[in-house]
Amino acid sequence: MIIPVYNELSTIEELLNRVRAADLSTPEVPVEKEIIVVEDCSKDGTRELLARINPPDIKIVYHARNQGKGAAIRTGLAHATGEYVIIQDADLEYDPREIPALLAPIAAGEATTVYGSRFLGQIRAMTFTQWVGNRLLTFITNTLYRTYLTDMETCYKLMPANVVKSFRLRANYFDFEPEVTAKLLKQGQTILELPITYTAREADEGKKISWRDGLPALWSLVKYRFVD
User: Least CB-packed of 114, 158, 179, 227 within 10 Å?
Assistant: First the structure.
């Protein structure tokens, strides 16, 4: 599990408590959990808090300068040793207790890549603008890559580590989501979607992504349809 973190002082400790408490094992397969936090040079005290609590069961990697979510995920991938990886945002919008449901079809041999879809599950507090932006980008993904996704932008992407590490990922920011999705689909991966619960937060609560991030995401979808 890779947790990119930037300016999440109000939520990071609670998020780590939830992640550590979540039993990711399924009835069929016990799961050894690896938690990698990539601290992306926060300015609000997050960095100092992590250094102070320094949980022994969590690997924390510190960026010397702020590089963005995509860069933090790439750093996390470089340190990951597990067979599968999943991204976990640090803002409490996604519930780690739902990860075992995403693991279940992999353990049963029914899938190799699983996305947690907010639009198949329950959404709380997502604004109309966010709803439209997410649906539009997913529609464009389906059109360009001939697939049938409902939530391309979801954080919960459970992917084979060796596959993701084989990609030459370039995204530094929120355009990681379309880039990795494009490359998974171009490689021939079938993405299974399962419902998850999503509780959105607002800008005054620390929400970082906005409609402006949709333009780089759109460009990534178009670009990676034709180039690596």
Answer: 227
The answer to whether 1 and 19 are in contact (CB under 8 A) is yes
Q: Is the pTM of this model over 0.70?
A: yes
Torsion, Cα of 15, 20, 26, 28 (10° steps): 150
The number of residues making up the chain comes to 228
CATH architecture, domain defined by 2-226 = Alpha-Beta Complex (3.90)
| Per-residue pLDDT tens listing for the chain (228 residues) | 999 999 999 999 999 999 999 888 766 667 789 999 999 999 999 999 999 998 889 999 999 999 999 999 999 999 999 999 999 999 999 999 999 999 999 988 999 999 999 999 988 888 888 899 999 999 999 999 999 999 999 999 999 999 999 999 999 988 999 999 999 999 999 999 999 999 986 765 555 566 677 788 888 999 999 888
At residue 152's C-alpha, the angle toward residues 61 and 195, to 5°, is 95
Kindly list the strands in the beta sheet with 35-39, ordered across the sheet, starting from the edge strand earlier in the chain: 2-5, 35-39, 58-62
Nearest to residue 13, comparing CAs of 95, 76, 91, 77?
91
